[in-house]
Amino acid sequence: MAYHTVADILASNDAATEQFVAGVAAVTEAQANFRPNADEWTIGEIAEHVNIVNGGFLRIVGKLLRQAEASPKPAPADLNLGGVIVGENGDQAPKFQAPEMVRPKGGVAIADSIVGLRNTIAGFSEIQPRLEAADLSEQAFPHPAAGPLSAYQWMILLAEHSNRHLGQIGRIKAADGFPA
What crossing angle do the helices spanning 6-24 and 151-173 adopt, rounded to 10°? Predict the structure, then answer.
């Protein structure tokens, strides 16, 4: 996917978040806690992780935005950005071990994770005018696997991250023994 404006990126994030929410909202407690293998997260843990990480994306973008606003340059007329940060397809990107700070602790209700995900999207909506006014291409923050990413790339990564984990949830739901 190509992104030409901040609005394009945020619309993609809105859609990815709503698809993720749709994938977890009707999950029962037994389904949320089903672990197909000892080394895999449950759906509840995935929802918690996505909430933690997406909230982190908002904080990182906010920090990079403040840096850009400190030495303002006008936003480019066309971002002309591709949408692949992690891999060719979120589901097929190399498996990456989440850093300790974004690993789920467990015990978080999916409903609470959904509230957090929607709050993150609302946070991006609140700062959208500022995001659209500044050139965010020169400020970067390191991603543990992808290296330095611009604020635009961090925003794009939000949808990719949500989609990658939605694919993981689909595999859990298809696993032998998944509760009906």
Answer: 20
Question: With contact defined as beta carbons under 8 Å apart, do 7 and 125 qualify?
Answer: no
DSSP secondary structure code for residue 142 in this structure: E
DSSP bridge partners of 84 = none
Q: Do 5 and 83 contact (CB within 8 A), yes or no?
A: no
Residue 100 DSSP class: G
DSSP 175: S
The one-letter code for the residue type at 55 is G
> Distance between terminal CA atoms of the chain?
35
Task: Determine the Cα–Cα distance for residues 131 and 166; give it in Å rounded to an integer.
Answer: 27
CA–CA separation, 165 and 104 (whole Å): 13
pLDDT digits (tens, 9 = 90+) for 36-80: 999 899 999 999 999 999 999 999 999 999 999 998 888 888 888
CATH class assigned to 2-173: mainly alpha
Q: Tens digits of per-residue pLDDT, 114-140?
A: 999 999 999 999 999 999 999 999 999
Q: Which amino acid is at 155?
A: M
The pTM assigned to this predicted structure is 0.90
